Structure formats: C-alpha cells, structure tokens
Batch of 3 targets.
Target 1
Amino acid sequence: MTNQSKPESLSSADPAAQIESLQAQVKQLQLAAAASEQRYGMIINSAVDYGIITLDAEGSITEWNEGAVRILGWGTDDMRGQPIACIFTESDRLAHMPQKEMGLALSQGRANDERWHLRNDGSLFWGSGEMMPLRDAAGALHGYIKVLRDQTQQHLDYQKHKADADFMESVLSASGDCIKVLDLEGRLAFMSEGGKRAMEVSDFNDIRGCPWPDFWEGDGNVDAKNALAAARVGQTGRFQGEAATFAGNPRWWDVQVTPINGADGQPERILSVSRDISALKTAEKVLELSEHRYRSLYNALDHGFCIVEVQCDDASYPYDYRFLEVNSAFEHQTGLKNVVGQWMRTLAPEHEQYFFHRYAEVARNGQPARFEHTAKCLGNRHYEVYAYRMGEPEQRQVAILFRTSALENAKNSGAQR
C-alpha cells in the first residue's frame, strides 16, 4: 500500500475524522447522483412525443416515460416488471419478435423497430423507433432502451401513396402504349413497362438520358423536335412517324407530347405517349391498294357505275338522290358530266320517279334489285340496272351498276343505218 496514493481525507491519524470525512463524501456523491437522476428524469419525461422505455437484461420493463404513457396508455407503475412483449401484437409475439429485436440490438448495437404495436385499450398504432443495449463502463450488459414514436398517420399516408403509386404502375404496365417521361431537354428519364415491351427494350438503363428526338429519322426527327418545343411552352405536340424498335423492327407510331407542370404551373418535365399504329398503317395500305384495284376495275368496265345518297321527306317519300362517286364510263352511259356532289333533280328535273322509288327501296330493306327502265330525259335511253345498298340503312346509300340495254343498242344501230 506504500506505493498507492490515498485520499487526502485519509491522511489524518484520527479514525473518527476519517469516518466523518468519508460520510461527507458519500453524501455529496449521493446528492450529485440524485440531482443527475432528476435531470435525467426531467429530460426523459419532457420528450412527450417519444415513448422511452428501459428494460433489464431479460426484457422486463424498468422505466416508462410520460411519452410512453401518452402513446401506449399504461401508467409507469403498471408497467414496471412487465415483459416488453406485452406491447407487441400476438402475431409478432408468436414470431418471437421481441427476442429477435433484443438479439439484433446486442449483435449490431441497435435494432430498428417499424411495426404495429398494441395500446392499453387494445387498439393498434404504427410504432417507429429502435432498441439499443445499455452497458456499463466495463461493457457489461445492464439492459436495453427502446425509443418509439406514434407514426400511424404517416404510415397510413405512406400506404395510400404507395397503393396509388402501385396502381398507377400497374396501369402503365398494362398499357400497350409507350409512355415516357423526358426532361426539358428531351432526354429519357422514364419508360413504362408496356413501353419497354412495345419498343423491345430489355434494359432501360441502356437508353436512360438519351435524347428522345434522336430515335426518329428524317421528317420524324423534325416532328419530334417541334412537338418537344411545343410542350416546353405548355402546349401539346402531336405527330405520326416511323421509328424502329431497339430490336430493329420498323414500327409506325402516333405520338402525343404534353407538358408536366410543377407547383408553379410551369413545365418541369415532359410526357410522351406513343401508340403503335403499325397494324393500322398496314391496313390503310391494303385498303389503298384495294381501292386502287377497285377503281381500276370499275373504270375499265364499259358499264356505268355510281354511288348515290337517296333523299326522302318526313313521310319517307324519295324525291332526289345525290351522286357521291362515279366511274369513267358514267358520262358515256348517261351523257351527264361533272355530277359528283350534285343532285339528280338539278341535273335532270324530269327524271322518272320510278328510279327514285327503286333506289329508296334498296336503301331501306337492303335487298339488291335488278330491273330495266327507260330514262326519257337522258336521251330516251333504256337501262339494265343492278342496285345494292352500301353501308347502314340510315346512310341511304346505294351502289348502281348499269348499262344501256341490248334493245337500246339495237335501236341506236338501226338509226345509224
């Protein structure tokens, strides 16, 4: 002991003085400890938005602040000695979540706690916080401290936002359109799942940040830049163009480009929606070819051909028809010129009512009709006629294939002789 330092109070040779000095120091330390504990308690209990719970090494509650009383509903005296598991749901208790949380706190220094918890009245709240081990200066475990907040409303808001986002994602994924978000410079920032399928993109990261107009060539590139410029100033741009997928397959697209406005009402990003219209374009080409063949066929005929729209009064009495389309032989067969868009009563006011009735009947009942009749006001020509309805009854359109009859030809031949 000769080499160890001694407290100054022990240097006196009077044993009574030594005891009195030690008692004074102990009392001073006790008062300091009490003051420190009081300050600690005041700090802990002032944190009313946080439930602060201390546990012993076995997981039993030793302290419970005012915040925990407010959030969970139990008083401090009611909870001392109770297992922390009592604030966990039954399913979490069965899954041994309290023990797992303490184990994680020991192994990693802290354990995050984001789950539903029980209140005194049996209701649930979403607790967000963490648990940490309490150790003394030597590192020995004395227990745990658990801190949590009631984040129920924030959790419900998050769940609603997530549900809305998941719903929108499912909608975007289900859509066959190529939906893209661009920055104001026109660089790709997002592409929907349906868009990646349509454009045959395997990994969007390969094209993220690429200039969107560069995917178009020729007139399409000009149209894309113009549509982008319109969206930048709050307008809508639209065009149709041809662009290949990333697998190199040619496609036709109908494209709409619109601004995405920020909180200030000004465009901050751009939405581009491209719909694959390749099938429609193919059908248009087939139709165009078909119409070309159809016109070539009917223009090659020596029969006259026309499509008319029958006009009726309120009592369904037919009094006129208008020419919508004629072939090249029409003029030769009738002697009428430049008739498209004109009414028959204007061209030939005395034209026989018989023709009007027959065409109206075809338009009404949809049954084709064959007949012969003479048109005195058209040079006394005698016609062989085949008429059939075009489209729906309410359109009152009739296609007419006709020619002068063999009798008419014989008369004309006799007159020439």
Target 2
Amino acid sequence: MMATPILFGFFVSLGMALGAFAFFLWAIMAGQMEDTEDLKYRILQREEEEDTNRTGRRIPTTGVPS
C-alpha cells in the first residue's frame, strides 16, 4: 500500500526533471545561451563607424580630447 504513492511521486519527479532537462537542451540548441555582451560592443562600434563616416574624423567617446 505504501509503495504506490512513493512510486507515483518518484515518476512525477522524474518526469519533471526530464522535462526540465529537455527544455535546457532545447535552449542550448536554439542559441538562447549565447553571449549577449558581444552585441552591445558591436552596436557601439557600428555607431562609432557611422560617426566617423559622417564627419570624416573619429569622435572621441571618452570625453577627453585626443
């Protein structure tokens, strides 16, 4: 009698763990775990290149004249 609820709980928890693992694998395969830090630096670099192309000279981004 006592084994039935224990087995049921075991299989429910096993199913939840496998579901979480499958979701984790999906996230990795879909590229959800990629580095987002690189994106902000690429955006800043592109804006700096656009400013250079527009003015013909590089505009300092630090506020200190070069």
Target 3
Amino acid sequence: MAKPIKETPILFGKDADRFESEIKKNESRKVSEKEYKRAISIFSKVREKNKASF
C-alpha cells in the first residue's frame, strides 16, 4: 500500500529568500535547441518502450 504524502513545509527567513531568488533566476533560463531535441528523443524512446504498459 502507498504511503500518504506529507504536507509541503512552509519556508521562512533565509530559506524563503533563497528559494524565491532561485525560482526567479530559473524563470528566464532557456533550454538550448540541442538539449531540447535530446530530451525529446529520450522521451520518445521511453514512451515507445513502455507503450504497452500505458
């Protein structure tokens, strides 16, 4: 049987500030075309391999 999911903790102080700055920094980060194509290729392979189980 699956274990229940715990509540997400609330961040305060320095942890909250650090989390917010990391989120803002990553919002503008773009993935290169090469990396995007690589990820899609891997996803397609995994999807085809597991097609019967979906």
